[in-house]
Amino acid sequence: MRDLWRSVEKGEWENHTSPVDFLLLGMGNVPSLQAPLFLLSLIIYSVTMVANMLIVVLVVADRHLHTPMYFFLGNLSSLETCYSSTILPRLLASFLTGNRTISAHGCMTQFYFFVELAVSECYLLAMMSYDRYLAICQPLLYASLMTWKVSLQLAAASWLVGLLISTVVTSFLSHLRFCGPNVIDHFFCDFTPLLELACSDTRVISLLASVLSILNAVFPFVFTLASYVCIIAAILRIPSSVGRQKAFSTCSSHLTVVSVFYGILIIVYLMPRTPQLRQLNKVFSFFYTNLTPLVNPLIYSLRNREVREALRKGLSRALANSTSSEYCCAKVVKPPRVHT
To answer: What is the pLDDT of residues 191-244, one digit of tens each?
Structure first.
């Protein structure tokens, strides 16, 4: 692997692999950092999977969480589970084995699911903000407007739009001709690093990507922002401080998640890809793709009283069942008396 890395630096990569493979440079080639980065990524992935799956289980199992708000939260946690699994297992394997090559098909597959889940998350966060808008700004009409049928339709639309957009973009990208070193200066197959390797005309796909970015990232962001402007204005009109605090507590978790998600997203994709800033861009990309799915369930579990209560009851029930099972197993059945 070190010889392969030296050949990349010397511009001799085409002598070492076929054009159907890519080399992901990852987070750098510092051997002393590979073990710490592997452990950090493994901890992040493990906690992310457990935390998000726990949220999904709580939403399904606890009847008090059978509301549209928590239905959307369950969808978000499911999405984050898939999102982490798109990038981190491949990254962990590269840290462990030192093999950073990825096939063209594998690269396109990773890019496809990355785009699909990222777009779906933008729309899902917008749907969640709309749900909070109706709950706070239209409380009397909320039950009739946000029915289970509407919730299912909005969640399904979020997933389907992501699927459609990803199919279109990946189809165009896969038809490009890649030449040169085929070295991706990133830790996963993202759009801009892949486009930099193309030696065919990229004007059409660049224009398409720009239009779709505006429609599927900027529009949901503006919609979410407008929803929260209305929500904050409605909260400020509540006369009592207790009422304002109660209203704000129902949407503060989601507002925090939206701020973290879009804040890092804007930094990653608006930061210039100059040689001096590429490593910093990778760091923010790591936050965006790996830490955001970890942070979201922690925010909801720490800031949301109903989720904390459901978690407490679930743990108490599990502990009680465990204690009961141990007690039953420990009981000694007296042997029958033998009459002489």
So the answer is: 988 888 888 888 899 999 889 988 888 899 999 999 999 999 999 888 888 888
CA distance 76 to 56: 9
Q: Report the alpha-carbon distance of residue 143 to residue 234 in Å, rounded.
A: 18
DSSP codes of every residue in 245-279: HHHHHTTHHHHHHHHHHHHHHHHHHHS---TTTHH
User: Of all helices (H) and strands (E), which one includes residue 238?
Assistant: none
Beta strands in the chain (DSSP E): 21-24, 101-103, 183-184
CB pairs under 8 A, 24+ apart, for 142-147?
146/68
Residue burial 53-78, b: 16+ Cβ < 10 Å; e: rest: ebbbebbeebeebebbbbbbbbbbbb
Sign of the alpha-carbon dihedral angle for 286, 288, 289, 295? positive
Q: Give 153 or 340, the one with higher predicted confidence.
A: 153
Residue burial 174-204, b: 16+ Cβ < 10 Å; e: rest? eebebeebbbbbbbbbbbebbeebbeeebee
* Dist CA 193 CA 186 (whole Å): 7
Alpha carbon distance 128, 83 (integer Å): 18
Residue 189: which of 17, 24, 14, 4 has the closest Cα?
Answer: 24
Q: Which residues contact 299 (CB under 8 A, 6 or more apart)?
A: 253, 256, 257, 260
Residue 84 burial (10 A CB sphere; 0-12, 13-18, 19+)? buried
Q: How far is CA 271 from the centre of its chain?
A: 21
Residue 26: phi and psi, rounded to 5, are 70, -145
Contacts of 17 (CB under 8 A, 6+ apart): 23, 101, 182
Q: Name the DSSP letter for residue 187.
A: S
Sheet with 183-184: strands ordered across: 101-103, 21-24, 183-184
User: 213: helix, coil or strand?
Assistant: helix
pLDDT tens string 152-182: 999 999 999 999 999 999 999 988 888 767 8
